[in-house]
Amino acid sequence: MRTGVWLVGARGSVATTSIVGGLALRAGLAGPAGCVTELPELRGPALPAFADLVFGGHDVVTTPLTKRAEALAAAGVLPGRLVAALPDELAAVEDELRPAPTGATQAVRAVAAARDLIGFRDRHELDRLVVVNVSATEPPAHPHPGHADPAALRAALAGPHEVLPTSSLYAYAALEAGCPYVDFTPSTGARLPALHALAVERGLPYAGHDGKTGETLVKSVLAPMFAMRHLRVRSWSGLNLLGGGDGANLVDPGANAAKVESKQRVLGETLGYVPQGETRIDFVEELGDFKTAWDLITFSGFLDTRMRMEFTWHGCDSALAAPLVLDLARLTAAAHAAGEVGPLTELGFFFKDPLGSPSHSLTEQWVRLVNFTRSLHAGQESADGHAG
């Protein structure tokens, strides 16, 4: 299944690492470490092969993709040998990157974005095209309540006012172009009634929000442990230090608040109560494309004995996120081919604040993901059998 992966924020660190990684996997220059879909429990015929992935995207910046890859290699995010080995492949992707659409109204910009998507799909004769948002985090948005259905939204977009945040405008353009949409950020994206209705109207799936790659991944494992052992968490405080473009973007109080809210949700929904403490995210330019998180957990056990736990997470966010971007593109393409429509709640395993997920427990999310993927493979095998 020839599948396009259109990245919003295509010249950013996560997108560039995803592109280099996908090209390296296609060329047999790297292994699939970190790619969940390559585990035996998930691998199968419904998923497009790495060799079938074709990359394109939008971005507001113009730095050549090869230069971004070289900078990431110099920072230790990805191997320099891969950048050196893939000049033609990176140049081909560069040819498919487009500037962020411009225009007097959001309707004009949405039409231009959809035109880019349709042109990319037609040029490469793609079976599916999945749009993945890996752009900068936005402040929380409060769209007008009157724009609750596709028709009202279309009319509003043609007016002089900015009706949708950028992530939602890209989601709208993707759905209008017949493309599933995945939001790897905590931005609003497709999480609006009118966009859900549009997805249903167009028969498309969508997924999100906010890729789970570091501290929150650990929280989603530890919080169920405390709950299942009937240990009372008294406080849980976290400090996240980020460098790079993501950290710089989160200096904005609105974007920072959106990210913190996404990270904190797992505790209240898993424990059934919110312990004392908060999560902070600070920008430390010196860290570059790496991040460090330190958490302090205090809890009480039998006879109210007080105890504590600390952990430190030091990782490269782009290297952790990129394989998940490839996973989500493959799974969403397979879901689209299988006729899935609306929010893909079974993909909650990948997100901090997943759409409609009944549980934040990583184990429970894993079971749902495995069962869902197996059903996709079974459907593909059945279709192949009938075709044969």
Automatic annotation (TrEMBL):
<comment type="similarity">
    <text>Belongs to the myo-inositol 1-phosphate synthase family.</text>
</comment>
<dbReference type="Pfam" id="PF01658">
    <property type="entry name" value="Inos-1-P_synth"/>
</dbReference>
<dbReference type="GO" id="GO:0004512">
    <property type="term" value="F:inositol-3-phosphate synthase activity"/>
</dbReference>
<dbReference type="GO" id="GO:0006021">
    <property type="term" value="P:inositol biosynthetic process"/>
</dbReference>
<dbReference type="GO" id="GO:0008654">
    <property type="term" value="P:phospholipid biosynthetic process"/>
</dbReference>
<protein>
    <submittedName>
        <fullName>Myo-inositol-1-phosphate synthase</fullName>
    </submittedName>
</protein>
<dbReference type="InterPro" id="IPR002587">
    <property type="entry name" value="Myo-inos-1-P_Synthase"/>
</dbReference>
<dbReference type="Pfam" id="PF07994">
    <property type="entry name" value="NAD_binding_5"/>
</dbReference>
<dbReference type="InterPro" id="IPR036291">
    <property type="entry name" value="NAD(P)-bd_dom_sf"/>
</dbReference>
<feature type="domain" description="Myo-inositol-1-phosphate synthase GAPDH-like">
    <location>
        <begin position="214"/>
        <end position="318"/>
    </location>
</feature>
<dbReference type="InterPro" id="IPR013021">
    <property type="entry name" value="Myo-inos-1-P_Synthase_GAPDH"/>
</dbReference>
